[in-house]
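Summary for the steering committee. One of the milestones for this cycle was to obtain a three-dimensional model of the protein with glutamine bound, which we needed before selecting residues for the alanine scan. The sequence and ligand used are listed below.
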Amino acid sequence: MTPESSSSSARALREAIAAGTLSAEEACRAALDRIDRGNGTLHAFQSVEPERALARARALDATGAAARGPLHGVPIAIKDNINLAGTITTAGSRMLEHYRPPFDATVVTRLEAAGAVIVGKTVCDEFAMGSSTENCAFGPARNPWATDRTPGGSSGGSAVAVAAGMVPLSLGSDTGGSIRQPAAFCGIVGLKPTYGRVSRYGLIAFASSLDQIGPFAGSVDDAALMLEVISGADAQDATSARIDVPRFSASTTGAIDISGARIGVPWTLLDRGVDADVRRAFDESVRTLERLGAVVSAVELPHSAYAIPTYYLVATAEASSNLARYDGVRYGFRAPDAASLDAMYDRTREAGFGAEVKRRIMLGTYVLSAGYYDAYYLKAQQVRTLIRRDFTEAFEHVDAVAVPTTPTAAFKLGEHTADPLQMYLADIFTVSAPLAGLPAVSVPCGVTSERLPIGLQLTGRPWEEATILRLAAAYEAATSWHKERATAFTRARSS
Ligand code: GLN
């Protein structure tokens, strides 16, 4: 394998390193070069850590074959809301512009123990609040398929890093769609695990009952490989579940037979607001799954019609509580020259947070306040239970639920910034899975007439990531959408 082709697949890369045709250091240098060439245009990376990465790669090259982990020598990127000890972790916020966490996130510890080489931190919306990376205090990332468009958010930079071929794998976090939506917008695979599957220790909290960390990859198999490494109970996170971690990649390799698998489609949810090209691609993907032997039937998820308001009440309430810790005393930024403690709090939060984060803190504080709690927060919790119950009932008849990941393909940068409601509506198909705690994967399923990628989302029962990975892998093997590349960016670079 040549260093240049080392962005192709994590599995192929690991095998090339094991066979001795490529060293971890060469793979790392090649990734750093690709980032160097692409980041000026795409702004996928908030920060790059070349010395740290090369030192680790060299150390890996010096270890014996017996000590090699499943991601030995594979360069990866992580979202900038995941702690990497000693390196700046901004979460896209001025508030944490100079913050260096004193400890690693558990996912970092696990990835490094498996031999992965972290090359840098990727651009995200401030505190992961957003669907486009335009809420990042340090500027948005750009979609490699069309650089005037968003890569999606909030984990947009991580999606770009994989879609532009800088690294084969990256980590994002998903609260209401922040892995699946950018995966769909960038033509790659993204998976949100079951709530509790992956430790949140060291993830900067947004909405703690929804947040999960998960993989971005160029293929379903690579996503499974990464998920295998990061999953499992962690004493540092009481919400991480003590439940066995299957070998997910056993579901994504070899001959995959999905005949008899039962897939439900909530057709009535798709009646309004879905772009015609997206709808065509989705309908075609359902026919492909049928051709592969899956049995497709209609399911009803009536309360998912209320998923957006429910999500934006629950998530903002939890965010208002989580973000109370940024008071200028304990973390990061402190506004100078305040005459009193109260003035210091006010000025710190005024200057440290961006407009969307302030909007959410105010909304969340409002829905939790006496007199409004029952009407908004409690009501949202009740609807959340109904959304979850709809899925439980559907899963008595089907093994997975299929919808388009997003109602449209990637929108233009600036298109929705003036209208937060339009931005929130981009999450219509992604917020239900986290509200119900369920695993969901987005896999490429087409391109629009403007050559923008489209994603198919498969949601599964709790702890059944293997089921949706198997379906996604069978779909991927039968189609070639995942092989389509982000040509706009490549063309611009070579001309
Ligand atoms: N776009 C959603 C929001 O703005 C989801 C974000 C996420 O999953 N972190 O809240």
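Key point for the committee: The pocket of glutamine is lined by residues 128-131, 154, 174-178, 206, 315, 427 (CB under 6 Å).
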